[in-house]
Design brief:
The chain is an alpha/beta fold. It is built from 16 helices and 18 strands. The strands form four sheets. An eight-stranded mixed β-sheet has the order 5-6-4-3-7-8-9-10, with helices on both faces. A six-stranded parallel β-sheet has the order 13-12-11-14-15-16, sandwiched between helices. The N and C termini lie far apart (65 Å).
C-alpha cells in the first residue's frame, strides 16, 4: 500500500484534494481495444497524481448512460489511497452536452483526448469555449506521410500534443500552423513489465505455462513457432503473412516444415479482413497454422507470446503496433515492416552508431520506410516496403501505404528459422534489454512519468483563450511544408 508522499513512477503520491482533475475522452478503459488498454495503463499509472474522469466510448456501449465509480476498485488494485476514477460510458466518443455536463459537475483542470482526430470534429468545434478555462491535451498518432495538411486545424485546436511515435512528432511540427516546444512532445506507448516479461524455469507458474504452450501448439513438438497477435483486417496483411509462411515452408524439407507452426491470435473470419481458414486451406495446404481464438487475460497473453520463437507484424499502415513492444518485452525477436511507429522499437542507428532520435525526423527526411538507415537492433528482422503508394478516402485524402513484398517476408522468416535456438533467444534478450531501458520510453512506468511531467508543463504554460476573437474568415492561411513526405530513392 502506498502512503502519501511516497514516490510512484517518479512522482509523489498526493492527497486526493491536492491532485488536478482531468477528463479523458477515449475508448472505455475497461475495454480490450488497443486504445482502451493504453488508456487503462496511463490512468492506473498516474492515479496517485491525477484525479481522472472518463467519457468512455464504445460503438454500442452496454453501459451507455450510466455513471460508474471505479475509485475503490482501482485503489485496491494499485495500492494508491483515495483514487478518483469516474467513468461515463457512451456510444461513440461523446458529444458537446456530455462534455459540458462534466465541466459543470467536476472541478476539471484539463481535458485529454486519445484516438484518431476524425472522431473529435465536434470537440474541436467547441475548443474556444473549453480553452477559455482549461487546456486540451491530445495523445496523438498518425500512421504515415505525406503530411496530413487537413489535420492542421485539428492540431491547432489543442494546447499540447503528446505524440506516440517519433515520426508523428515531425508530422505535427510541420502541419500545425505554429507551436512552442512544450506543446509537441514524445510519449511512446509503454508496456507494463508486470504483465509482459520473459518466462523461464524460475517462473512460479512455469508448469501451467508449459501446459498452456502445449495446447497452443496443438500438442505437437515444434522447433519454430511464428506468432501474430493483431486484428484480421486488410492493412495488417494477415493473408500475406500466411502466404509468406507457406513460401518459407516450401523451402524446407517435409520433416523440417512439420516442426514449424504459424500461430494466429485473431478472429479467423472478419468482414474487414478475410476468411483465413479458407485462405489457409487453399494457399497453405499441408502446413500447420493454428488459431488462438477468444479474449485472453493478460497473464495468458504473456504465456502466448512466450510460446513463440519469433513474432511477425508487417502492416502497411501502423501508428505504433503494440504487438511489437509486447513481443520484445517478452524477450522474443520480431519480423517487422519498416513503416510508421513500428520503426521506433527497431533500434535504427545513424552512421556514428547512435540511435535515431526525435530530432532526426525533419522536412528533409521524415521516415525510414525509404531505407536510409539499415543498421538496426539485432532483435529485429526488418522488411522494407517494396511499394509506397498513396491510398485515401474523403475523410483521409491521402496516406502512404507501405506494402512489403510477401517474398521478402518469407526470406526474413527463413532467416529467423535458421537462427532458431540459442542464437534467436539471445536476440530476443537483446530486444528485452532495449525496450526496458527507460531512455527509450517503452515501459509503462516511463510512459506514465512522461505523462505527469508533460501535463505539469502544460499547466505551467497554459494561456486561456480570450472570450472573443476577431478573425478574417476569407483569409487563406493554409501552411504547406517544403517537403511533401515522400523521398525518391531511385533515379529517373
Amino acid at each position: 500500500m502506498h502512503k502519501i508522499g511516497d514516490i510512484r513512477n517518479g512522482y509523489e503520491v498526493l492527497p486526493k484534494d491536492k491532485r488536478k482533475t482531468v477528463l479523458l475522452l477515449s475508448d472505455d478503459l475497461r475495454m480490450t481495444s488497443g486504445v482502451g488498454n493504453m488508456s487503462r495503463e496511463f490512468v492506473l499509472g498516474t492515479c496517485h497524481y491525477i484525479n481522472w474522469v472518463q467519457i468512455g466510448g464504445a460503438i454500442s456501449h452496454p453501459d451507455n448512460g450510466k455513471a460508474i465509480d471505479m475509485s475503490q476498485d482501482i485503489s485496491e488494485r494499485t495500492g494508491v489511497p483515495d483514487v478518483n476514477l469516474k467513468i461515463h460510458p457512451t456510444n461513440g466518443y461523446g458529444n458537446p452536452d456530455l462534455v459540458r455536463q462534466c465541466m459543470n459537475f467536476y472541478p476539471l483542470n484539463g481535458i485529454m483526448i486519445y484516438t484518431d482526430p476524425r472522431f473529435w470534429g465536434w470537440l474541436f468545434q467547441m475548443e474556444h469555449e473549453i480553452r477559455q478555462n482549461i487546456p486540451i491535451m491530445y495523445y496523438n498518432i498518425w500512421d504515415s506521410l505525406p503530411y496530413p495538411m487537413w489535420n492542421q486545424k485539428y492540431y491547432d485546436s489543442v494546447d499540447a500534443l503528446f505524440n506516440i511515435s517519433k515520426q508523428t512528432v515531425n508530422i505535427v511540427k510541420n502541419v500545425r500552423s505554429s507551436y512552442e516546444d512544450w506543446q509537441v512532445t514524445y510519449i511512446p506507448h509503454g508496456i507494463n513489465t508486470d504483465d509482459y516479461f520473459p518466462i523461464d524455469e524460475s517462473y512460479e507458474q512455469y508448469d501451467k505455462f508449459l501446459e498452456f504452450k502445449k495446447d497452443a501448439t496443438q500438442g505437437r513438438d515444434k522447433e519454430f513457432v511464428l506468432f501474430y497477435n493483431a486484428r484480421n483486417i486488410r492493412r495488417k496483411l494477415v493473408g500475406d503473412i500466411v502466404y509468406a509462411y507457406k513460401t518459407f515452408c516450401d523451402s524446407l524439407t517435409e520433416e523440417e516444415a512439420a516442426k514449424c507452426l504459424l500461430l494466429l491470435h485473431c478472429a479467423p473470419v472478419d468482414e474487414n479482413g478475410t476468411d483465413l481458414p479458407e485462405l489457409c486451406r487453399n494457399l497453405a495446404p499441408g502446413y500447420d497454422v493454428a488459431f488462438s481464438g477468444g479474449k485472453l487475460e493478460r497473464e495468458q497473453m504473456n504465456w502466448l507470446y512466450n510460446s513463440a520463437d519469433c513474432s511477425i507484424l508487417v502492416s502497411s499502415n501502423e501508428g505504433f503496433g503494440l504487438m511489437g513492444t509486447e513481443t520484445l518485452m517478452c524477450g522474443v525477436p520480431l519480423i517487422v515492416n519498416v513503416s510508421g511507429g513500428m520503426q521506433d522499437y527497431c533500434g535504427f542507428k545513424k552512421e556514428d552508431g547512435s540511435y535515431l532520435t526525435v530530432d532526426d525526423y525533419t522536412t528533409e527526411w521524415g521516415s525510414n520506410h525509404d531505407g536510409r538507415y539499415k543498421d538496426h537492433g539485432e532483435w529485429i528482422f526488418p522488411v522494407w516496403p517494396s511499394s509506397r503508394s498513396l491510398q485515401g478516402s474523403p475523410a483521409t485524402p491521402y496516406i502512404s501505404d507501405d506494402r512489403p513484398d510477401w517474398q521478402d517476408v518469407a526470406i526474413q522468416i527463413k532467416k529467423a528459422w535458421s537462427e532458431r535456438g540459442e542464437k534467436l533467444q539471445a536476440k530476443g534478450k537483446a530486444g528485452y534489454e532495449y525496450v526496458t531501458n527507460p531512455e527509450f520510453g517503452f515501459t509503462a512506468s516511463e510512459m506514465n512519468r512522461r505523462f505527469m511531467e508533460h501535463m505539469d508543463t502544460v499547466w505551467e504554460n497554459f494561456k486561456p483563450r480570450q472570450r472573443v476573437m476577431i478573425d478574417n474568415a476569407t483569409k487563406w492561411d493554409y501552411k504547406l511544408p517544403k517537403w511533401n513526405g515522400l523521398t525518391m530513392t531511385k533515379e529517373i
